[in-house]
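[Structure tokenization] protein backbone as discrete codes

[Encoding] learned vocabulary of local backbone shapes

[Begin record] amino acids and matching fold tokens:

___
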Amino acid sequence: MAGEAITTSGSFVSTGATVTIPLVYSPDWFKVINLTAAAAPVNSIGYVYEWWASMSYNNALITSWTGAQPAIVTEMAFTQAGVQALAGANGIIYYDNQYPQINGIFQSTAISNATPPVVTVASTAGMFTGGSVRLTANTAAGLAGGLLQLAGMDFTITVINGTTFSLNSMPPIVPGTVIGVQFLGYPAISGFQPRNKYITAMRAEPTNLAQTTITFSVTHGYSVGEILRLYVPAIPQNLGYYVTIPLVAYTATVVAVGIADVSGYTNTVTVDMNAAAFGGTFIFPLTGIAANVNYQWAYAVPFGENTAVAEALNAPVLQDSVTDKSTRGVILQAGNRSPAGRNLDLILWMAGTAGLPND
């Protein structure tokens, strides 16, 4: 490509699922060629996807076959204002998980009482499994939607279909209707230390009552030996939030990661503290209450490491201080007019930076 330097390239065979391609730099452009689709013209099948850094979220210039006698047409997936311009199309999503994507807020129409809760929206276009959403009560309908206990929280999600996604690691709640949804891309995480995380469940370990397993609303990034300061409502079994009773801080060391909680979720850490210290079984609020209530959620703050514990459990030491956990790259979604293509399509990709005019 004239004036542009290709610095990275590769290929893969599509499985009909979203593909994440990590990069070690921020690209100025990214291009995908579906070699299978290019060789066999089929109406409404895309085969070239081009993205530049100035484009809006989940956008690309898409070249596809069209018409009864397939001809070539090049169209944008979305307008720069984020409105879908090409039905069923997805573009190329750039992410840097040190900085969440800031997208517009739209409204849900329902949240179920399933495990995990399922959120219904008009469209999940541009959303992907493993990404995160921030829920907000940003309208009068949201304030009346019965879900205020979730407003302000971030959740890692699983996209189920074109109109629904689930809130991973969230226990069942009383069903609700309207809440604001803002898609953030991958959960933000600082390069060398995990950020604060909201807690959705806590319980004593059945095989060791001196330990407590804690579940988080987003992928946590904590490791064995890490020390957490846990802020928990003074009487957590009383629905997990208070207006006048302050949060109480506890200090505990992570002794295990990924032990399943009572709902089967494994986005967990187990710490060396008896659950009785927290006042008993922690129960996440099942429903929202008055709009003027100041909720206080339980959350964790990492602030150090117990190297003796890490070494005793054969875990690497200083992971939060010397291991850069930040990542960046692009996300390619699958489909007829999406860059990861259809099952068994051969996909070629290339990325690069802007070059000199005479390159």
In short: Residues 66 and 288 are 49 Å apart (CA to CA). Helices lie at 35-39, 140-143, 307-312, 319-322.
